[in-house]
Amino acid sequence: MDVIVIGGGLTGVTTAYQLRAAGHRVCVIERHATVAQEASFGQGGLVLPTPLDVWFGPGLGFGMRQMLFGSRNGMIYQPGLSASARGFVRQLNLARDPERFAMQCGRLRPLVDLSRRTLAEMEARHAMDFEQRDGVLHLFRTPRELKQAAPALALLAQFDYPHQILDGETCRTIEPSVPPGEALAGGVFFPYERSANCPLFAKQIKTLLDEHDVEFALGRSAESIRVEAGRVVVELASRTDETSGARGGVESIAGDALVLAAGANTQTLLGQVGIRVPLYPARVHALTAPIGYEEHAPHVTVVDYESRVTISRLHNRMRFASAPLLQGRGKTARPTPPKLRRRAIDTLGQAGHTWVPGAAKLSAMREWDGIALMSPDGLPITGATTHPRLFVNAGHGPAGWGLACGTAKIVADLVSGRASDVDSDSLAALSPTRFQHG
Ligand SMILES: Cc1cc2nc3c(=O)[nH]c(=O)nc-3n(C[C@H](O)[C@H](O)[C@H](O)COP(=O)(O)OP(=O)(O)OC[C@H]3O[C@@H](n4cnc5c(N)ncnc54)[C@H](O)[C@@H]3O)c2cc1C
């Protein structure tokens, strides 16, 4: 089949990889000059989520109280939150019920397993090096934080995530960069979880795809999509001639199937064919700096439980990421206002200062932000739509790095009409059509 993928972020690139591996002819349409330039660019690096990393459940504190009075959960709220943002938070808060949280984590688990296997196969087959680093250590300042995390800790055992629950002293043995004077009630260490360089991986996959005749329409924006009898058609925004300024004619690409992996733009394109999915955008922030003092740089990835800031070492750089900003949709499309940006950057800087002081060269710090698209039940939106030729792969929230490798495989199997690697309950829980029944 001829399959078109809109979006050359990590999700689009991994989807193209799996589609090509399944024998299809693939064209990826990406509006930037190369792949992984939006959410996949400066992200935190944590490869796969555990129940401690997800943005739903009892521990997160997405409540109205936190929004009105402020909180230390790392979330940045825009004062006077819009009705749409309040509505989204209300939906997300349904997962604060421990039973519902356990159910969603149970549905996520098969996807985590598939993603781990798929990524491992790709790494082994192509002998890939994309700055992988083993070991993730979540740190808890106070016994209260540990208590708050109890439902997630129970699920780590229930769903077989290899982990060790540690006291403060043992945490310092595992990660000697954590300063001795800092209050530390304990931690959870995941020896087999990893951080790695997401855009580097995406670019390596693109190089492989170039060698296997996958077409990349780079610098081209998909303006509209149509689903007709027997085929899908994508109209591209016309090009402007740089010297004369003249606009070219309308160009379109037709195929047998279309996968929307257009990140923050997915909803707009889906809306053109009358499909609504309740994805919500959050602007997430990151700081990157060269290693300051090697002896203070962490050996494992550190996550501050309270603020949810991920501190990862990517080769010779430190990355501090998270501080999601929740506000109205229209505002999220624009750059973060300076005051809120300062709060986000301070949140990241504070976590770094607390847990790995001296690790980063602050004078050379670069700020970055991107949009993470979240679904109200915390799971990605992956699978077939009500149009038989139209598929979606988006909404991975704060956990798209490794999960994109698994959702790519699911979509490729669905497009190819092959049996899926995950059970039918998990497929239904990821399906774009799940919100029509809820
Ligand atoms: C600061 C930050 C930190 C994060 N940290 C982590 C982490 O530690 N671990 C983790 O797992 N996840 C993390 N995430 C989330 C993760 O980065 C995302 O889930 C993932 O990158 C999403 O990939 P994507 O390909 O779906 O979206 P994107 O990377 O945004 O790609 C979408 C692509 O579609 C293209 N596009 C859109 N519309 C059109 C169009 N009309 N025509 C052509 N092209 C189009 C865009 O240009 C873009 O390249 C983080 C996100 C941010 C912002």
UniProtKB/TrEMBL annotation:
Pfam families: DAO
Keywords: Oxidoreductase
Protein name: FAD-dependent oxidoreductase
GO CC field: cytoplasm; plasma membrane
Entry's family note: Belongs to the DadA oxidoreductase family.
Domain FAD dependent oxidoreductase: 2-414
The UniProt record lists the keyword Oxidoreductase: yes
Gene Ontology terms, MF aspect: D-amino-acid dehydrogenase activity
Species whose genome carries this gene: Pararobbsia silviterrae
PANTHER family per record: D-AMINO ACID DEHYDROGENASE, SARCOSINE DEHYDROGENASE-RELATED
Superkingdom assignment: Bacteria
GO biological process assignments: D-alanine catabolic process
